[in-house]
Amino acid sequence: xxxxxxGVVGLGIMGAGIVEVFARAGYQxxxxxESAAAVDAGKSNLAKSLARAASKGxxxxxxxxxxxxxxxxxxxxxxxxxxxLVIEAAPEILSLKVEIFSKLDAAVKxxxxxxxxxxxxxxxxxxxxxxxPEKVIGMHFFNPAPVQKFVEVISTAHSDAxxxxxxxxxxxxxxxxxxxxxDQPGFIVNKLLLRYLNxxxxxxxxxxxxxEQMDAAMRELSGYPMGPCxxxxxxxxxxxxxxxxxxxxxxxxxxxxxxxxMVSLVxxxxxxxxxxxxxxxxxxxxxxxxxxxxxxxxxxHNDLLMAYLGDCIAMEAxxxxxxxxxxxxxxxxxxxxxGPFEVIESIGIEKVRAGQAELAQRTGIAAxxxxxx
Length: 373
Description:
This protein is α/β, with parallel strands linked by helices. It has helices spanning 13-24, 36-55, 61-69, 94-107, 123-127, 161-173, 189-205, 211-222, 228-235, 237-251, 260-267, 294-317, 323-333, 340-347, 349-363, and strands at 5-9, 28-32, 71-74, 85-88, 113-116, 136-141, 150-155, 177-182. The chain has two domains: 5-182, Rossmann fold; 189-368, N-(1-d-carboxylethyl)-l-norvaline Dehydrogenase, domain 2 (Orthogonal Bundle), CATH 1.10.1040.50. It contains 15 helices and eight strands. It has an eight-stranded mixed beta sheet, sandwiched between helices. The longest helix is centred in the C-terminal third of the chain and has 24 residues, at 294-317. The chain is globular. The model has no long low-confidence stretch (mean pLDDT 96).
């Protein structure tokens, strides 16, 4: 099995980014979207990204033109008939993805592999919409796809091991770090990231800290590129709520139920940067959040960090993902300066366990307890 032509369905920022990844690597790419307007937007997204790279000296104009020449666009799924691999990058709505995969199953040649770029939804349910579930896989790129090096490859109980192996080989050839995992809501990165973000808003809802205090704490004390409320606004609060609903439906844990503060903002139409406001108002340029209250910043940093590190320890203990893949996912997928197990090594596991136990006792939340030896 070899790959020569790649298809991408959905041409938003993520879809256009995936188109660019494969076109840069020398593949012929077919980009398909649901309307002429969406196709034009995809072309524009690709052109802008290549222009940015050229302006920074990362591409010559000749290279940019060659990449563009490898890509064709259209609205008809039949254009994907001869693709060896088709990656769906539509919005995170299960019913929409199921509908797309049913259409892809009918349009793409029988030997073609179908992949979903879902960040949290059930790959199994998506695969079951086809007559070839053994050839359906998750291939979760991170945004922006041409830049971010981490990709989660998600197999289901139906997945053909040979198909999984070929996708891993393909991803490695793109210069990506691949984590090969099974189908669980949120996978590695979003399961850990969204619980951390949800915890932050739960602290905010309880009045224990302001958004500025939390964001400043994680920036200043852990060196994160942005704090939790800033990151929620960047990702899209509505997107985070939907991912949390998927995770909560699986775990049934109260800590995974979307925090009230997020839900109310979404209901008010304040979904983050894309709507102009969320936790922050983006009508004017904002400086990085700061706050002089060191005691509150230290406390909220401790609480967020201990809960997050505990989640990472628990994920590795189940065998779902290795320490290396978890560290790589959080660094390469989220831009964190250190992976959680690197942080644990620097702090000391006994101090982390003690911190977890103290947090669980103080909050009364059993999920924060350290795992028994």
